[in-house]
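To whoever is on call:

I kicked off a structure prediction for a single chain this morning and the downstream step that reads the tokens threw a length-mismatch warning. I double-checked the sequence; it's 802 residues and nothing unusual in it as far as I can see. Pasting both halves so you can look.
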Amino acid sequence: MPLGARSASLAELLDRQTCEGAEELTERLGRGDLRCHACGHRCLIHEGKRGICKVRFNERGHLRVPTNYVAALACDPTEKKPFFHLLPGSDTLTFGMLGCDLHCDYCFTGDTIVITDRGPMPFADVFALARHVERRPDAEVAFPEGLRAVTASGGTRRVRGVFKHPYCGQLTLIRPYYLPALCCTPEHRVYATADVNVSPAPIEARLLTAAHFLAVPRRYSFSSAQTVDVAQTLGGHSVTYRVPWRLSAELRAEIADRTARGETSREIGSRLGMDASYVRHVRSKMARGRALDERTGGALVEHGQVRFPNEHRPGIPLEIPLGEDLARLLGFYCAEGSVCSSRTRPNSHVLNFSFGHEEAALVEEVRWLLGKCLRVKAAKLRRATTLAVTVGKSSAALLFRTLAGGRSCEKHVPHMLFDAHRPVVRAFLDAYVAGDGHRYANGKVSVTTVSRQLAYGIAWLALKLGHLPSIYDAAVSEKGLFQNRPVKRSPHQYTVVWYERGAQARRLKETEDYYLVPLRDVSSVSYDGDVYNMEVEEEHNYLAGFFSVSNCQNWITSQALRDEAAGAAPRAASAESLVRAARECGARVLGSSYNEPLITAEWAVEVFKGARAAGLRTAFISNGNATPQVLDYLRPWTDCYKIDLKSMSDRAYRQLGGVVDNILDTVRMVKERGFWEEIVTLVVPGFNDSEDELRRAADFIASVSPDIPWHVTAFHRDYRMTENANTTAEQLVRACEIGRAAGLRFVYAGNLPGRVGRWENTHCPACDELLVERRGYRILSQRLGPDGLCPACGEKIPGVWG
């Protein structure tokens, strides 16, 4: 079966692409338990279980590890890895597999509201949107088609995937003023600040205090004009209607019986006193299954109008522009509308609007709007307690029920309004408030509904218009009285409040970009159930409960056994085919990267053996979370080793599921074993760019060897996250100067080609001769020969030159 076949899950297919793990990396503990030494986690793996990487697992006491496939394959300049002292100007064919030994657990409960281009939705409902769901051993990944999430910038970005997995443990409960609580895993980062003069930044939920403010973005985009496609909207509806027949069911049955006996139409007509042509007509109807007393049919399109079978002509317009008039009509429907069906005529639907006797002006406005937008004539009825507007037209009734819900607890803002013009949104909201809300003299606006979906939709529209809403959920008794009659009530009432003008005594603070909402308290609660998250393109953040929160960064790569960013789906490969591919594309180096290559060390060694025999150099591009056992296993077949030193902070590494001491030990062990080693630090403003942290990193590297090249590279917002500012050229140059002051002989600035002066180039540390001139990944000049000697002074430059 091909690796990409769809009849089995991705995880099941990958489990078939395994072999037994190396004995050097396997510790047998008895009773079938194993300890894996492929990375610094040194996972204890019980029988039938997996390590933290999800790709190494214990099958009946044997360690199974990945082999014979690749998830990503690319041929790039070796400088891109980055290796600056490894065959300058050469290319490296880099292959990657799946899984990761660093991980995150950023998740929310399923009832958490997230804001999408289809309106506010609970996470569980967002997950359920997807037709395609991949099931993995530890999680499910859903891929909703065309879904976009609202981000901190106020725009929308494509949702790459929505993730669900079981979680048992403590959650952090964040209770802000005005808005409902957020409940998430303790490590999930939310945008917050303890100083209103400082821009909000991502903070782990567990570190929040009552002194913090959560951030709600203030500015949002509005889109182009919308049109309601009535035929498409009603496409899922059908009605059953009676068909009058001149013939009784008994006579039709007799015609069918005589036809089955071979009698002709003339013979049947003669016996029953009918014209033969009419009998032929009846027989034709029966042959096509249409000789019925009832039929079911969908919406009919004729002459630019839409109606249902057996509904009086004319229908309603085929297309209705979503202008301010239709928006007001929809607002009145969400406030006071309903769709009724008679028990005796279940397929005949009536559109109703109910107002108080004192609301005659609204009654006349709704009648006028129905005539203008739908071209229907509405009746006005005076009842004991209400003034009603009714339209006995199924197409009109089903259109409104489809767009905005039927029963009170099912009402919702029509989805197209979330992407409409600002005046259209304003018209809808004004009509809704006029029908079922209250405006106070001080500018306060208040509405109440029993629909959670409608409440959040109204709140989202108010926020888009520039008014921070408050949402209150009140539990009520399900038994109540209405005009002295017992009635059953919804168990929740949702009240949405906002201020359109006037000064208000509220605790929140406002900046140019954010509403800063204070916290009541932060606590922990126990939880056992599913949790959710999603990955959003480009900005890597989204709004949860209107608050800005961090995307679960790189979840698809590290947790979902997938690396879309690398540009390829998993496919079968052999070690020989990879070596052959490297030769064909002119690469001089074969490298293992993309995910953490340590967890596929056996596969790398198999490939590297063939690469060495073919005269290629070999390299690991790693996060550095190694063990002595795996480095000893790799060393005979691996020339070069690049390590990401992300931070000198243990706390920062623990957020990723690692330990900084493991990384520092790996730097030492790689040097001790004779690999050619280069180190990279991505300098992220506000995370690891302080002078103290950079100096500690430089001092540590210099203590291992001043000859190790240190690459300090610029962070860009479109890389993995957007909460931090871009690294400037000045910041990179300062980091290089810190490295040089610490005694490092080779320090490079990356990701800002042409803007960092000499820090892209290799100079002789003895005489300062320019040896390799670079611009980004391009070699402009190269004066080092295979011996690595400076042509000016003869100094030996450490590296792999020939």
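Update from on-call: the warning came from a stale cache, not from the record. Cleared it. Sanity check on the structure: The radius of gyration is 34 Å.
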